[in-house]
Specification:
By secondary structure, the protein is α+β, with helices and mostly antiparallel strands. Helix content is 33%, strand content 24%. The chain contains eleven helices and twelve strands. It is globular and about 50 Å long. The two termini are 24 Å apart.
Length: 324
């Protein structure tokens, strides 16, 4: 930690509580079809059509600073299809929306390359999209999209963990595409994105921040082969996302190690342990809750591992912290 003032996500410009309250107000006003925590479901007879929509967020500002947009398309795909996976839904197609203040063949080609790579890796069809030029609305660019998926009633996860369940976690690839407002503020507090990265693996700070979000679509067959009760895609809100699986206490005993990029952000920004875990995935990007007899089998069949358990109570207990 430095002697500088402690940095929080709210100080950087994002108040998670206010954001969640605004989202809840929108959902309440709109109403509509059945929803899970991660996808909207439409009953089409013998199965559900599921939809999830998300964007890349302020990670785009890092890409813009480095003039490297080659990976943000992967992020856009991943943020959407991973939400479908958390609902038990198989993603089948993706449509993107790119808004710019002025057209540029260079970044359009790079964004398209990332979208194509992400779609191929996720096993979904990239079915086109929209590019809008809006100089009075957008400064720079914004990238978002919608993923469509299909699932039978049996494939959709119940969405509610049970006391006594075991938690199996899956490693993240780094910061993913969440909390970048805080990470950017920390990274540029006493430096720049082009500064040498102080750890192995990347040449610059910006390259470490641009590491693409990991895709979890490869897990679906194994998840469906086990009695998964609920899943959590660890995105905005960090480890508190586990509470989306129900009002229990989530006791984390063996999380994956946080990558060096989190150490860098925490030290450069003087960010508390609690704020880091409320904002970032801290090394674990996806978590499922299932009965003890299924958990070891799932971990053995995948690259996951048992990281904790579900208990009566509330909050998330991880690395000596209790997050409400």
């Amino acid at each position: 930690m430095t002697d500088e003032e402690e940095l929080t996500y709210a100080d950087a410009g994002v108040d998670i509580d206010a954001s969640e309250a605004a989202t809840a107000a929108l959902v309440s006003a709109v109403g509509g079809n059945d929803t899970t925590e991660y996808a909207g479901l439409i009953d089409i007879g013998d199965r559900y059509l599921a939809l999830a929509t998300d964007g890349v967020g302020t990670k785009l500002l890092v890409a813009d600073a480095l003039a490297d947009y080659s990976t943000v398309g992967i992020d856009c795909i991943a943020m959407n299809v991973n939400d479908l996976v958390a609902a038990g839904v198989t993603p089948v197609a993706f449509v993107d929306y790119l808004a710019v203040d002025e057209p540029s063949e260079t970044f359009s080609e790079q964004v398209g390359r990332g979208l194509s790579q992400g779609a191929e890796d996720a096993g979904v069809a990239l079915v086109g999209g929209e590019t809008a030029v809006m100089p009075e609305v957008v400064s720079g660019l914004d990238l978002a999209g919608t993923a469509a998926g299909l699932a039978t009633d049996d494939e959709v996860f119940p969405g509610e963990a049970e006391a006594g369940d075991v938690l199996v976690g899956f490693e993240s690839s780094g910061i993913h595409s969440n909390g970048l407002t805080l990470a950017r503020e920390a990274a540029t507090r006493d430096g720049d994105y082009t500064d040498p990265y102080p750890y192995d693996g990347y040449d610059t700070v910006g390259e470490a921040l641009l590491e693409p979000t990991r895709l979890y679509t490869y897990l679906l067959d194994d998840l469906h082969a086990h009695d998964v009760h609920a899943a959590a895609h660890v995105t905005g809100g960090g480890w508190t996302n586990l509470s989306r699986m129900g009002e229990y206490r989530y006791s984390i005993l063996d999380p994956f190690d946080a990558q060096d990029v989190f150490t860098f952000v925490q030290e450069r920004g003087n960010v508390s342990d609690a704020e880091m875990h409320r904002t970032f995935n801290m090394g674990t990007g996806f978590v499922v809750a299932l009965p003890p007899e299924d958990a070891e089998s799932l971990a053995d069949a995948t690259d996951g591992r048992i990281i904790g358990s579900v208990e009566e109570g509330e909050g998330v207990a991880v690395r000596g912290l209790t997050l409400d």
